[in-house]
Structures are given as structure tokens and as C-alpha cells.
Amino acid sequence: MSLLWLCQPTQSHPLPPRPKSAAADLRCEKAPGAAGNGGIGAMRKVAAYKRIKASRQRKSLKLLPTSPRHIKSTTPDMSPFRLAVLECDTPVPNVLKERGSYGSVFQRLLTDGLHGLGDRGKGVDFCILKYDVVQHQTYPELSDVDGILITGSKHTAFNDDPWIVSLVEYIRQVLTASKTPVVGICFGHQIIGRALGATTGRAPGGWEVSVEKVDLCDQGQQLFGVSSLQLHQMHRDEVATLPEGLVNLGSSPRCPIQGLYKPNSLLSLQAHPEFDDFIMSEIMTMRHSQRIFDDEMFRDGMARAGDSHDGRLVSAKIWEFFLDTVA
């Protein structure tokens, strides 16, 4: 199914036009050390071989692709899992300088997560396709990707800014009219909830920051294999109601819906598995300087920023979700 079909405008929620290649970072950023197709399928091997053969015939291997569908594997045996990262924000300056955009931050997390999959992870190759959905409002064609990940953001998921309305409508159509698996993190979690009819808004409990405990529900315990998770948090908004047909994965004292799940369709978390002490400390410091956080909240959050967390475990489970969906 192509994005051109998904992006037919509607009267109430006009969607962005088909993405222009010049506006998106379409380079295939592959995980170091990954090889093989990890059981994703022999058909992709054939497709990869055909793409490489055609590319060699054109003698243009050094050219950047003009569309995600032209991404090439380096050998016929390597057919990467193509993950579209919808970047909904830009990291704070020091994080951007040291780690790159949020697509690059998630590449680091997911590379680490593959190591947690044991033998199954050793056979997986993947590439990140970054789409700026805020400034350029570019979106992937679903025939060109194997999965979608929506990042966090300083923006508010229940606002009606044009780019947010477009993102909500795009995700609604992906989830209801395709089989492309979607993962949402923090803001992305709330976008998924809103797209499927949940109420989103300010959390009565206020800000939840730094490493916090998430108590998992029965389905969450089955999914992650533990009774609770320690994860970085950075939010004061929430998904307040559970969309029909979805499972709530867990809760915390300040946030009763910490994750959404539907097998072979979607997985979302209010927390930030991609954060570490450096990222958290930089955000805390900036928001303290902006007087978003008072001194007490700043000291409390900074004291817990370096606590151990389960980001790697969550990353491995994200991979299991994606690979089980496309198997």
C-alpha cells in the first residue's frame, strides 16, 4: 500500500502530500556489526539482489537514493529491516552535538537491543530512515518501510497544530488500513492514543521526570518478562483513556496508562528507553534554566538521572515485536 493512497486529503484532516526526497534524510544508517536477514524472508533477498544488479547496471552506486524504495543492501544476502523514524522534535543543543538527531539516538538504542536478542539478534540487519514531520512534514510510503517509530517531543500531542493533526491522521490510517507495525515513545505514545480515539491531556499528577518505576500489568509482564521496569520519564501529558481493543501495559503513581499494546500492530511507551543519564541531565538543566522546573524538581530529577534503567531490555522487546510482526 503506498503513501500516495494513504495521504488522500480529507475535509477535516488534510494529510501532507507525498514526501519529497530532498526534505527527508533517506540514507540507510545501518547498525554496525549486523549481518544477514534474520529470518525476515527469502523474498527480500531476491528483491535486494535485483536492486543491486540494477544499480550496478546504472553505474551509480555512489549516488544517494531519491526515494526510500531505492535503498540498497551491500550484498545480496543482506536485506535490512527498514525502520522509518518520524522525528517529532530536535534534541537539546548538547545532545544534538554529541548524539545527533533522535533518529540517531534510536539507532544507538536499537543496535544495543539487538545484542539482547542473542542468536536472533545476530542475524538482523537494519537501517534507519529519518522523516522530519514537524518542519518538512514528510512521511514514508508504506511499501518502502517495514516498521514505523514515532519519537518523543516537547510539543503537545493534544494540540491542533497543522503538523500534529496531519501526524495523527497519518498514524490513524497506518493502524487501521495497513499491517505496518508502529512503535510510539512518549509523545509518540500519546499520538497513537489520540489517533485511536483516546482522551489525551495534562496529567493530574503533573511532571514525571528521570528514572521512575513502572509497575507492569499482566500483559506487560508477559511481554517484558519482568514485573516492573525502571525507565527514564519526561512528560506532564498522558493518555487518559484506553482505546478499544488495546491493552494497558503498566502504570506508575503519576500515570495510570504507561503503555499501549496490540499484537502485530502497535507498541507504545510513555517512558523514554532511549534516554540515558547524559540526555536526561541535559534536558533537566535546560528546563531548569528556562524555569520550567523549579529547584526542588531539578535536584530530585538530577539525583535519579544516573540510576540504572531497563532501556536495553525494552529495546530488545521492541525488536521482538517488529520481527514477530513481519515474520
Automatic annotation (TrEMBL):
Source organism per UniProt: Conoideocrella luteorostrata
InterPro entries per the UniProt record, alphabetical: ChyE-like (IPR044992), Class_I_gatase-like (IPR029062), GATASE (IPR017926)
Lineage: Eukaryota, Fungi, Dikarya, Ascomycota, Pezizomycotina
GO CC entries: cytosol; nucleus
Endpoints of the signal sequence: none
Protein name: Glutamine amidotransferase domain-containing protein
Top-level taxon of the source organism: Eukaryota
Boundaries of every Glutamine amidotransferase domain copy: 124-275
